[in-house]
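The protein record filed here.
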Amino acid sequence: MTELIHFLRRNTLAMVGAGILGALLLAVLVGPLLVQSPTAIDMGAKLLPPGPGHWLGTDSFGRDMLSRLVHGGRYTLAIGIVVVGIAFVIGVFFGVLAGFAGGWLDTVIMRIVDAMLSFPALVLAIALAAAFGPSLENAMIAVAITMAPQFARVARSQALAVSSRLYVDAAHALGLPQRRILLRYVLVNAIGPLLVQASLNVGSAILQTASLGFLGLGAQPPMPEWGADVSANLAFARSSPWTALGPGFAILLAVLSFNLIGDALADWFNPRRRSQIG
């Protein structure tokens, strides 16, 4: 862990990503304590430009955009982490199981994975969210289902590679239980690329959930959520651009930060790149 922290500190892009993410986390954790309610309506102050009292302006209902931004950030950032966590657990479980067990189980699992990957991820997420019903929880489930096959495929390839190593053969020769070999030897040594995949997918999860919110299939009014706020204020993008630019720019920064950190982790797990940077 110490080596990883030292490596990330020497990686400029990783530090930029960590700085952006840290600033966003500080804003969404401390900001709600300093601003008014994100659902407070004041029709006499609707569509006010940024200025004292409303530093990011107000929307068409007179709601403070800064308040909606910091409150909505809690939902949006939590969405990315929770969605990837669910997809990671499901995808890695079935992927490692398929790669380690092989045979008919591998065939069945991977054919299901191939069928799901044959659909564009966002199109499949839209179809699932529409079938489940418009809500933030259903949108998160839909995005998690579309991401799980990606983890399954990477996990299977890693399990196949690790299962052919000599230390796994030695564990079999010693008569260790299959469950212990799977967890202590295969999964532990295959986890690196999966963590990189997870860090990169957080940004994708935020974008996909924001897209569902933009289409009305995610967070429902008056809940503050960045994607839903962009959709709700799109009609005023020309006359009052601050209503859509704030949450849109926040989504951009969140996705950028996770992608930069993910790229740095990819360099860490690549011995050649790690030696060049370190």
About this structure: Residues 12-27+66-270 form a domain with the MetI-like fold fold (CATH 1.10.3720.10). The mean pLDDT is 89. The CA atoms of residues 100 and 164 lie 10 Å apart. The two ends are 15 Å apart (CA to CA).
